[in-house]
Amino acid sequence: MNQTNNPQLKQNAQKLRREMTKEERRLWYDFLRRLPITVNRQKVIGHYIVDFYCASVGLVIELDGSQHYENEGAASDRERDAALAQLGISVVRYSNADINRNFDGVCTDLLRRLGLEGVERKPSP
Question: Which residue, 12, 36, 72, 99, has most beta carbons within 10 Å?
C-alpha cells in the first residue's frame, strides 16, 4: 500500500467528522480529546479513513457497528488491518456495544495501550 494519503478521501473524512456516530462522539468528547497526547479523528491513512489515530504510538482505534460482524465487513476489516500493519500501525477494535455498556473498561484499556496508565481520566463537563 502506498503510504501517501489519498487526497480524494479528505472531503469524505471531513464529512465523517461532522457526522460521527453517537458512540464515536461519546469516545471523542468524553475521553480521547482530553488526553495529553494528540489523537486525530476520521484520519486519512493511505486508502483508508480510520475512526481515530494516535500517531505517537502508531495506534488506530476503530468503533465497529453491526456491519463489521457480517462476512463482507469482517473480511474488509482484516484486509485493512493487514495493510495498516504493513505501515507499522496497530489497530484496536471495540464494538458500539462496548462503548455503550462498558465505557470505563474501554477507556482503561485505551490508557494502557497508549502508555498512559498513570493518567487520571478527566470527567466530562
Answer: 99
